[in-house]
Known about the structure:
It contains ten helices and no strands. By secondary structure, the protein is mainly alpha-helical.
Amino acid sequence: MATKQSKAERTRQFIIEMTAGIFNTKGYAGTSLADLTEATGLTKGSIYGNFENKEEVALAVFDYNLSRIKQAVQQHMVQAISNSEKLLVYAVVYGTFIRAPFLPGGCPILNTAIEADDTNNLLKDKAAKAILEWKKSITDIIKAGIKTGEFLETVEPERSALSIIALIEGGIMIARVTNNPTSLDKILKTVELLIEQIKVEK
């Protein structure tokens, strides 16, 4: 049974959802208080009555956007039968960030990691934690595949996981900067090839 939210909790959630696309598109530095009040229709006092400052909103927004990615991944994961199919889920979900993004602005991990590199440690830590969790998820899938005999015993799970993440995020970055979605398509084909190469030949 769902817990009923208080008015304050509903207002906080409303602010997060209404500003999620703005932060993800404009970035933390590029998002102004005027952007927040315009998107929500709330006053400055209402926003800062629910959040201590803009940074706190941005941190909550990152968590919200990341949860939407995880939800999309999970929806595809439940349909995947093999471990190789589970790995391909990431290519499918992240492949939408250029042509048909379900999050305005694209991948929040990439956006936040680039912008918050040395300017905002809290946001940087959020992005780092998200990447480490992603790496663990892929590593666990590869380990499971090795255990069941689907993947080669010689495969190094962590190295393969990092390679998949680097290819996907790098592909999104290149496609966005060059305004060429086919670049991401080509790089995601390399992800598929990498997954094929670690499979045991039947």
